[in-house]
Amino acid sequence: MTSALRDVPDLTSHDDGVRTVAEKLAAGERLDLDDAVALFESRDLIGVGALADAQNRAKNGQRVFFSSNQHINPTNVCVLRNTCVFCSFARMPKEEGAYTRTLEEVLAEASRAKSSPTREFHIVGGLHPKLRLSYYTDMIRALRAAYPGVHVKALTAVEIAHLARIERCSFREVLAQLKEAGLTSLPGGGAEVFGRAVRMTIADRKLAGDDWLEVHRQAHALGIPTNCTMLYGHVETMRDRAEHLLILRGLQDETGGFLTYIPLAYHPDHNALGEEMGWQGRPTTGIDDLLNIAVGRLVLDNVPHIKTHWPMVSPFVSQVALHFGCDDVEGTVVYERVYHEAGALTPMEMAYDDLVRLIRDAGKVPVERDSLYHAVRTFD
Ligand code: V47
């Protein structure tokens, strides 16, 4: 049963916090920091999930979006190699395994997809000390020329800020040049957790939280929509998570430029935090992965979509997430290094038909989308 006005399930939860949230939602009230902490601390996953599922269905019905996309990681050389202790992907310029692709190599890599025509390139990489902005604008122009109609979602806020430093110009100037070259949107990486103590522990020299927000604010002002993320499952507290979500919600109130929120599950293999620093944690569990989706849906009431990243949490958890507030599934991917270097055991690619089946078998309606969430093909 649902309440007639607000589509909130009548819920008798054993958890006071979840009952309070249910009452607030039914009354049309916004959740606050304490509510968000209570949801992250809740042991009533099914109760939290049912609330999130109702909110998602009210926004998106039975539709679940996915994209035919390809990830490209042009370089793993990164000036933050020794300070972002959670990262397994970065290398020093002369370190074994360091690579930087030429434009020709990127174009060759872009033609890997076999199961479906690519509609989106997702491009993220390291902070290379020497690559100029023109390396990226040339890449975007070449990809758009070779694949007419394709969307390019490229460069995290951290990479934008790094390029601004190299070019000695503003974030806005970098973004404007990328847009002119054909950039469609920005991915949401680099946010990690905004809280100072967490950032000092896991990403000491990385772009500060306020600067991450400023890059996204500037992008939105230029008409470039963006995604947002949170990296969870390392040293953060439940309050850190709650504060992070409220900060994202605050920027969305201001600009309305976020398209989707993606909780990113920390993978501890082959990085200093997981293997060398005496971190007492363990990889995230299915329970935590689903809870992060559900709490994201409930707190980020102004963000249209919540995405599950199947390479990190597995296709199985991603499928179940579709009943916990999620309406957006990572795409075909094709080839990916950031999580697989960190020990993700999932395949690198999901064939287009398998993605459609994964969504259908969850009882949902698959909708292939472009980067801007326009429906390209609907599987009724
Ligand atoms: O910011 C790095 C994460 C992010 C690890 O916008 C790790 O659609 C887990 O931007 N374990 C970059 N995560 C990836 C990114 C992204 C990914 C998926 C979808 C979208 C989108 C954007 O990868 C980094 C960091 O948070 N990451 N190392 C690790 N060991």
Explain what the structure shows:
By secondary structure, the protein is of the alpha/beta class. It has two domains: 16-58, no CATH class; 61-378, Aldolase class I (TIM Barrel, Alpha-Beta Barrel). The chain is built from 15 helices and ten strands. It has helices at 16-26, 33-41, 45-60, 103-109, 133-146, 157-167, 171-181, 196-202, 209-221, 238-255, 272-275, 286-299, 310-313, 315-321, 352-360; strands spanning 63-66, 69-72, 120-123, 151-154, 226-232, 258-265, 305-308, 328-329, 365-369, 375-378. A seven-stranded mixed sheet has the order 5-6-7-8-1-9-10. Strands 2-3-4 form a three-stranded parallel sheet, covered by helices on one side. The model is unreliable at 1-5 (pLDDT under 50). The protein binds ligand V47. Ligand V47 binds next to strand 5 and strand 6.
